[in-house]
Amino acid sequence: MKKSNFIIFIFLLLSFSFNNSYSEIFTGYLKIDSYIGTVKDDGIERKLYSPYKIYNQNNELIKESGYHFDRPHTLELEEGEYKIVYFNSEYLKKEILCKVEDNKTTICTLN
Hints:
The protein is of the alpha+beta class. It has one helix at 2-19, and strands at residues 27-33, 35-41, 44-49, 52-55, 61-65, 68-69, 73-78, 80-87, 93-100, 105-109. The protein has one domain: Immunoglobulin-like (Sandwich).
């Protein structure tokens, strides 16, 4: 019985080591500060953040945000450069490039 347990253990150990051959993905964080002012919501004053869209290096839309309250969004993204498209306070379309690095937080302020 002990010999069969040992064989099973070796089999599991080998299959585990072969199944873990993967390419490592590096991720970081992107904090989007799109603060535009405060609003009253049922008597409570709340911070208002404007909408934006995030595109990857292939110009593919990966995130779209509407107006949101209270705090800026923080997203976990793969390492790389991202384009953020938004409208400024004069309603002009703007673009900004932000670089996400492994295990770091990049803050992009939209104004």
